[in-house]
Fold this sequence. Notes:
NT_sf, Beta Polymerase, domain 2, 4-stranded antiparallel β-sheet
Amino acid sequence: xxxxxxxxxxxxxxSLAELPLDTEWAVTLEGSIAEGFGNPSSDIDFxxxxxxxxxxxxxxxxxxxxxxxxxxxxxxxxxxxxQFQEVERTAGRPARxxxxxxxxxxxxxxxxxxRGHALVEEVKALLPVERFRRITxxxxxxxxxxSLRHALALQCLGESDEAVDWTRAALVQSVKSWAAGLGExxxxxxxxxxxxxxxxxxxxxxxxxxxxxAVVPSGDAGAARAHLTACLDLAADLGxxxxxxxxxxxxxxxxARVTTWQTGERVHVVRGGRDVFALGADAGTVWRSLVLGRPxxxxxxxxxxxxxxDPGPLLAAFLRYGLVRLVWKGGGxxxxxxxxxxxxxxxxxxxxxxxxxxxxxxAAVTGARAVDLMPLPADRFAAAAMALVWSNVxxxxxxxxxxxxxxxxxxxxxxxTARRAVHAALxxxxxxxxxxxLPADTDLVRRMDLLPAATxxxxxxAGELLGRGVDSAEDGDALRAELRRFIALVxxxxxxxxxxxxxxxxxxxxxxxxxxxxxxxxxxxxxxxLPIEEARELLAGNGAQPHQAR
Length: 550
């Protein structure tokens, strides 16, 4: 670890002195420092364990001790046992296994006891580490398969650039599955470089980085296909089963509660009983040509036979918006997902700008290939607002992580953390324009066409930053400065110029909590989905963290 036992005990003493604790606790260190990673900006994660019977809060208390950010979480033995049991119950269905739950269990199992060692070890024994390795490896493997199948579909539809992004996502997930089987179960991918070094297989590490860093020219379908094939080969060599090779195994299927209504020549598609999409002439023609239950290549061929030029992107839009779905023969629905990102699911674009909105012939559209959404309902507006606040918190956290990584010369960690900051900033921009649920992070730059044209330069700048590497200390300093300018540009466009520097001090953290609470009240009233589980406790506590400093 980068901190000595003596230093950790000192930080623990000072942290506990600030909290109104009224019982005896076992204490263990969680997170990246306990794992042997970390840097000067890494927070100190203390988990306090008690035999108390009452439910202890999930949300941590955030303290600032001797220049370090300290998070204090409290859990009862019963709560930890429930977490482990839930993981076991869901282990055979990795699609239903919560990333948050898996992460909480992983942190406990790989924690470093500081006090009450016997109780900590008793808790860890509730889920054998070998069993947890298998569960985590299977969870990553499931996600890798989903991403590879999605990439194959996108390649078939002519969306090669997007296919490359999902191929890279699948590459990370495949290697994380393999590494988890060797004991490297830490979920967050930003430390992957260190995990691969520690795994002791230079051949796998070098092959991974060669593929991850491979340059695939934009719009080059042949290069994208070759890159997908190489990643499929590596995934198979690492033991991933069910690796897709034939797009014919992908079938286009109906989605529950999606219905079609035609008024004159205008095709309207109603999703979930409340979202109405109006299709332009070409989009409507492709939609009417769909015969569901058929293989994707055949559906694409039948769409092309209608005379509509390049129907692939229109089919991709239908998939993206959840109007149809893909099913892998013998493997269920294709639902790709990324770690530490927006949850999987259909994308909802901003409302149509066409006016007048309706006529006797149906809804107005913005063009022949339009798939326009009518104005947003109130609950989605509230959900987008909450996502806007949370994305800005993530931006501040990522910038702080970047600073620490640069101080320690952790080049690859810095690169991944900078990308996280860019993606989080873009999530905020999309949320500010009413996009909710959000696209996957890897899709954000390409989905800038959902936003007003004035935001175009932001997308260009984001694409440049996402491609930046850190080859020297000077590169790192330049990247950090450019990232701050980018964040300022995005915040100016979405009216968040005065967003507090959340992790700068206790004062700015309180301001962040209050800002989030203001939006949470509206979201809860409207029944909107909350951005993180801890938000419920923030709402119940009227904007205060659960453990108040003395």
